Each structure stands twice: as C-alpha cells, then as structure tokens.
Amino acid sequence: MSPASPFLTGPIVAAAEGAAGGPTLDLPWNALIPLILGLPIFGFLFTAAVGRRLGKQAHWVPVLAVFAAWVIAMLAAYGALTHAEPFGESGLVVELYTWIPAGGFQVEVNFLVDSLTACLLIVVTTIGLLVHVYSVGYMGHDPGYWRFFAYLNLFMVSMLLLVLADNWLVVFVAWELVGLSSYLLIGFWYRKNSAALASKKAFIVNRVGDVGFALGIMAIFVNTGTLNIRESIGLMTADGAQNAIPLVVVALLVFAGAMGKSAQFPLHVWLPDAMEGPTPVSALIHAATMVNAGVYLVARANLLFAHSVEAMVVVASIGIFTAILAASIAMTQTDIKRVLAYSTLSQLGYMFAALGVGAFTAAIFHLMTHGFFKGLLFLGSGSVIHAVHEEQDMRRMGGLRRKIPITYVTMLIGSIAIAGIPPLAGFFSKDEILGEAFKLGFAWVWLIGIVVAIMTAFYMFRLIGLTFWGEFRGPREIWDRIHESPRVMTIPLILLAIPSALIGLALGLPLGDSVIHHWLAPVFDEGVHVIEEARNVHPGPYELFGIDGFLIGASVAVAVAGILAAWRLFGAELPGIRIGPRHGAVRAISARVPFLYRASLNKWWFDDLNHLLFIVIGGRLAAAMFWFDRVVVDGTVNGIGSLTVSAGRGLRQVQTGRVQNYALGIAVGLIVMAGSYLILAGR
Amino acid sequence: MSQSLDAYLILSGILFAIGTFGFLARRNAISMLMSIELMLNAVNLAIIAFAAFGAFGGSPAEISRGSVIALMVISVAAAEATVGLAIIIAIYRNRRTPLVDEYDAMRQ
Question: Are strands A92-102 and A572-574 parallel, antiparallel or unpaired?
Fold first, then answer.
C-alpha cells in the first residue's frame, strides 16, 4: 500500500482527531455487530427446522429475532452516524474470521459499520421489522405461514450481510443470497404458474447482471490483488496506480451487477413480474431493501466511479432513462401493485441518476425516504387487496376511503410524500437529486427528472383516485364485506407513515447543509471532490433566494401540476376539494395519443422484445446448437467408439486360442527378423 | 571328427528345423514336448561345436566351457520336461485328450 494515497491517510487523521475528544459509544461491538446477523440466522434455522409444528405460532421467533436485530442495528447506526468512538468518521471494522487463507490470497469476513452502512441498516431493519409484524396479519390464513417467516428471516440475513460486508467476495455471496431469497419469496405460491414463472424470470434476469458483477470483482482482484472493498478501491484510484484493466471497465462491470439487482433498463423486466409474490415481500424486497442493493453498491464504490467519469455518465443516462420509461408505463397500468412496481423502478432510476451526476448523498437520502414511503404504499396496497378479497385490478375498486380509513390516510400520506409535496419526505430527497443534477451541469437529467416528477404525481393520484375516491365499481356483495385490516397490519402502516412524513424534515434540514450531508460526508467527500476536479464544476454556496429557490419552486410546481391533472381526470375527495372523475376525458385523451397509450399499456413492448430475442431467436439458435451437438459432436464421439469396436471384432479372428498358432507366429517372426538381419548385414 | 564346423552346424540346423516343425505341426502334446527336446539338443550341439572349434578361445579350459553350457542346458531341459509333463497330465485329466488343438480355453 502506498502511503501517498489520500484514501488511506484520511481515516488515520480522522481517528486521531476523534480520539482527542468527541462522543463515545462504548459497547461490546465485536459481539453485537455479528449478532445483528446471528439473530435472523437463528430465526431462519429454527423456523425452518421446527416451524411446521408451531403452526400459527411460527411467527414469534422470527419476529423477535428481527426485533432484537433492529435494536442492535439502531444502536450501531446511532454510533456510526454521530461518528462516536469507536466508529469514528471512517467506521468500525469488526473482524470475524478469515474465510479463505490461501497464501497471498486472503478473504476475510469482516463487517464494516460506517455512516453509509448505518443508513442502510436503519432502512433494512426498520422496514424489515414492520413487514414481519404486518405479515403476521397478512399471511395469517396461509398454509405456508412458517415457511414464509423462515424465508423472510433468510432474506434479512442476506440483506444485512450485504450491507455489512467489507469484502467484495462476501458482498457477492450476500448478493446471491438475496437473489435466492427473492426467488423463493416471489415463487412463494409456487402452485400458481405465473408466480413460478415470475420467480424464474427474476432469477435469470438477475444472473445477467451478476455475471457482470462477478467479472468486475475478478477485474478488481487482477488490478489490486486484494478483495477488501476500501483497500482495493484505494489502490486502484491512488495517484499513479497502474491498472491492468481500466477503471471505466471495472466500474461498468460493477454497475452491471447493480443494474440487475436494482432493475435498471434493460434488466428492469423482472421487477413488475416479481409482484406475483405476497405483498409484504413486494414491500420489503422489491421496494424498500433488496432493489436498493445496486444503489448501495455504487455508493460504496463511489470513489471508483468518481475516477471514471465516462462510467458516471452511463450510470446517469441509464438511471434517468429508466425513470422516465417506468413512469410512463405506470401511468396506464390497472393492477395496483404493478403501478407501484413501475413507480419503484422509476424512483430507483432517480437514485442512479443522482449517483451518476455525483450527488451520492442525495441518492442515499432518496433511498431512505423512498424505502419508507414505498414500503408504506406497498403495505397499504396489500391492505387494500386484502379488503377487496384478493382483487388487484383498480378498475374494480373505488370509494374505499369510507371502508378502510386507516389504510386510506396512510396511503395518502405515502402518495403525497412520493409526489414531492413539501414538507413530506419525498420532496426533500427528490428536490435534492434534481437540484444537484442541475447544479453539477446535468441540465438534461434535471429536465427529464422534472418530467418524471409530473408523471409521478399524476400516477400516484390516479392510483388514489381509482382506489379510494369515487364509487365502488366491483360486485355489490364484496362491497358489503369490505372491512379494515386487523390492527397487526394497520399499526405497521401508521408506523411507516410517520417517517414517510417526517424523515425529510429530520434529515433534509437545514437546506443546503442538511443533517444527512454531515452523516455521509466522510464516505462521499473524497469522491465528490474528485468529480468536481475532473469535471471542473464547482457549485457555489446554497442560495435559497437564488438558483436553489428556483429549483425548489420548479419541482414543487410540477408536482402540484401532476396532482391537479390527476384530480381533473380521476377525481378528488379531500376536505374542501370535491372533483368528480371524468372517465370520458380519460378515454378521449387516450384516443388522441393512441401510440403513446398503447406503448405505455404494453410496457413499451419490452417483454415482447425479450420474447422475440431470447425465446424465438434464441430458441432457434439453441435448436441449431443442439443439432450441431447431436450430429457433429456426438457423431464424432460415437464414430470413434464404433470404429474401435469393429476394429476389435476384426482383430479377434487372429486370436484362435491354440498354442500352436501362436508358436507359428513366433517362429515366422523369428525367421523374418533373422532373415532380414542376414540380408541387411550381408550388404 | 570332421574338420569342418559347417557340418556340425548343418546337422544342428536340420535337427532344430525338425524340432520346430514337430512343435508346430504335431497335435499331440507329448510329441510337442519331445520336439522341444530336439530343438534344445540341436542348440547344445551347436554350442559344443563352436567351443570345440575355439569360438571362446584355444585353451583347454576355454574349450571345455561349451560343455559346461551344454550340461546346464540339459539340466534345465530336464526340469522343463518335468514341469511340462506335469502340466500335460493335469490338462489331460481335465480334458480327457492329449490333442492341443482341443485346448482352446485361452480363447474364451
């Protein structure tokens, strides 16, 4: 390691300052941090082993395990975010054991808890805990109750390992484990064909990205000879570092993995189908936590990306393209969960756009706020689906606010939050992304982002309008039996609504110098600095009555515009606001732009394109390969075999078994040899 | 005693050829064993003839060396004949025939 690397000297200086004075949080971290993982591991093993016999009591161990993990994680997050000792600014490394000690190749299973990990820990454990509680009600009548909780705990283990791991290889293991638990949970109702297909689709599409990620890890090892995340990135980006594989390639390979897990174009097709799983799974894995893994990975490797500006542009382009693509699809979908799924894609696109322009803090901020309000919206949609007897089509809903008020109010809060109305959470994080994009010189990202913001507000209030306002459009007998979900489901909704409303105020203020900036500064400062040097962009101080005020105004204005447009078309029933839905106008507008409408309804034909590319053309190619294998390869092998057999059959005639024949052979051989010797020697 | 080595060698060659022919052509195992004896003795004759004509050297000790080799061959031949006869008798008890072309167990 070269001592010249600022990456390496930074933490040492920081630690020295921390020791001089500052908060301390002295707990037995070496035992507690592994316990965050150990508790859900125990919950998983216990439930998997004896859960079947526990029947309807199977949830106790998993829920309590996650609760205990949540307590520890909150303590650790508190320590890491206040930069208290022993975390300091550079984070605490807990050494567990050496997994692969092979000479110079060492893979250590260490945990790193710094402020970035802490942010993820808060999101993962809080939403994980609430989803566990919610599932007690939602999955109450399912025969696979215990199996569900075992899988959920397995997912918690994998996700926590992913955010805690300090080593690329361990991250990769966790990466695959979350993929596995996602597969198991999407296909939870495996007797349903669509669920089984969706789980396979998710798994296979993720593999595509994972190949890239695996190659990226190999490239990192080739470049540096170590798999420790911070050490390897420090070595690769040090001044005058000689990299056998260019940093741009490494960054793009890692990003390929992030694209798969976070469902970015063109690997986005799996996420909407993943809604076949139970709704708590959609909330936990496919909205709030696992899909954030890609964002986390890029943020963790921010220095690597900062040193390859071209890769950053790719990240920003793919992110913002996914954002607008998914938002446009969400506007016409009729399945309540699919609207939310496309919304998730779109918001993840925002996060990648933020990472791409260099606004790492904004990306993580949006990750946190989005985790809360999208988790809330998904759980709310689950409550709605539960209420209307497993109906997911919004065309057969309506007027539900009178029947399920708690769900209605909490989902309304979530919708306002995601639409970006101040002072709710989404406003702060989304505005920060858009503002940073503009100020860092990516006006086009900002412009597309603004369009996406209009669409976001529109499709969310379309969802609210179709579901909760107006008249019920389903069968009469269902309407009579609709009732609010049990308390075990509504309390998690309320508990999620609180951060959805307030986390922006808590973390996003004061504007321009927010709390979360202070939290994440040690992780991102160097990367941001490198980017600003590379692009020669130096954003000035924060001006509330200047450019920043204008940007805030713009994003609020478009959010309001989107909401008003949705109200005009799909109605509104708020205190003091009564607008009736205008179904005729919806049809008229759809008919005026038939191409756009059909494109949105058919998801821009990406599933059909994949069908054509991989099923039809790929199938033909595979058939041709199969023919080649059968005829040419197998033919060669079988030909050699049968040639040997027939040669043996011919030669067998020589072997008579009679001694005298052999003796004759010996005699003739002797005569021939002796004779030829004589002839040759006689010359 | 003839003064020409050739005469001994021709006789030895004829005896050896008869032995070889007998070994290859006779069907009776005992006759084959006898043919082997004939071949061995043809070789003995050749060795002694070579030695007597000074192939190993001219001194009496060197001339008698041929006889020593011949005696050696005779004793080995006697041992070989014993073992061979024992084997033939064992096979004969098994197969009830001395004819070797019926001994085709090696082919199975």
Answer: unpaired
Instruction: Please give the pLDDT value at position B78.
Output: 92
> Under 8 Å CB-to-CB from A511, ≥6 apart: which residues?
A542, A544, A548, A552
User: CA nearest B27 in A: which residue?
Assistant: A660
Cα A501 from Cα A515, distance rounded (Å)? 17
Q: Would the pLDDT of A2 be above 70?
A: no
Looking at the complex, does the CB of residue A664 fall below 8 Å from at least one CB of chain B? Answer: yes
**CA pair distance A42, A78, nearest whole angstrom:** 25
Please check whether residue A86 is in contact with residue A92, taking contact to mean a CB–CB distance below 8 angstroms. Answer: yes
- What is the bridge-based pairing of β-strands A577-579 and A572-574? antiparallel
Contact A426, A369 (CB under 8 A): yes
For residue B17, the chain A residue with the least C-alpha distance is A667
> Residue A604: left if φ>0, alpha if ψ -120 to 50, beta else—which one?
left
Tell me the pLDDT tens digit for each residue of A120-131: 999 999 999 999
Which amino acid is located at A432 in the chain? E
Please answer whether residues A279 and A379 qualify as being in contact, where contact means their C-beta atoms are separated by less than 8 angstroms: yes
Residue B30 sits at the chain A interface (C-beta within 8 Å): no
**Cα-Cα-Cα-Cα dihedral sign, residues A398, A403, A409, A411:** negative
**What is the reported pLDDT for A11?**
41
CB of B29 within 8 Å of a chain A CB? The answer is no
Closest CA of chain B from A638, distance in Å: 28
Q: Which pairs count as long-range contacts for A533-542, CB under 8 Å and 24+ apart, including other chains?
A: A534/A306, A534/A307, A534/A309, A535/A309, A535/A358, A535/A440, A535/A441, A537/A440, A537/A441, A539/A436, A539/A439, A539/A440, A541/A512, A542/A511, A542/A512, A542/A513
pLDDT tens readout for residues A211-256: 999 999 999 998 888 888 888 888 888 887 788 888 899 999 999 9
Task: Give the three-state DSSP class for A626.
Answer: helix
Is pLDDT at A563 greater than 60 in this prediction? yes
User: How are beta strands A105-113 and A577-579 bridged, if at all?
Assistant: unpaired
Q: List alpha helices for A359-508, DSSP H.
A: 360-387, 405-419, 425-439, 443-468, 476-481, 487-508
A chain contacts of residue B103, beta-carbon cutoff 8 Å: 657-659
Q: How far apart are CA A551 and CA A438, in angstroms?
A: 8
> What distance in Å separates the CA atoms of residue A12 and residue A10, rounded to the nearest whole number?
5
| φ, ψ of residue A277 in degrees (nearest 5) | -70, 170
A657 contacts on B by Cβ (under 8 Å): 103-108
Phi, psi (degrees; rounded to nearest 5) at A97:
-165, 165
Residue pair A398/A316 in contact (Cβ under 8 Å)? The answer is no
Cis peptide before A510 (omega within 30 of 0): yes
Helical H runs in A238-335? 247-261, 270-273, 279-283, 293-300, 302-306, 309-330
**CA A410 from centroid of its chain's CA atoms:** 25
A406 Cβ contact list (under 8 Å, min separation 6): A484, A485, A490, A493, A494
Q: Residue A9 pLDDT > 70, yes or no? A: no
Higher pLDDT, A577 or A678: A678
State pLDDT tens for residues A425-443: 888 888 888 888 888 888 8
Q: Which fold has domain B5-102?
A: Helix Hairpins (1.10.287)
Phi and psi based region of residue A170 (left: phi greater than 0; alpha: psi -120 to 50; beta: remaining): alpha
Strand partners, A97: A109
Q: Calculate what percentage of chain A has a pLDDT beyond 70.
A: 97
Per-residue DSSP letter, A546 = T
Which chain A residues have a beta carbon less than 8 Å from that of B104? 656-658
| Residue A7 pLDDT > 60 | no
Q: Do A656 and B107 touch (CB under 8 A)?
A: yes
Return the structure tokens found at A681. 């020697």
Select from A657, A315, A126 the least CA-distant residue to B102. Answer: A657
Task: Give residue A622's pLDDT.
Answer: 92
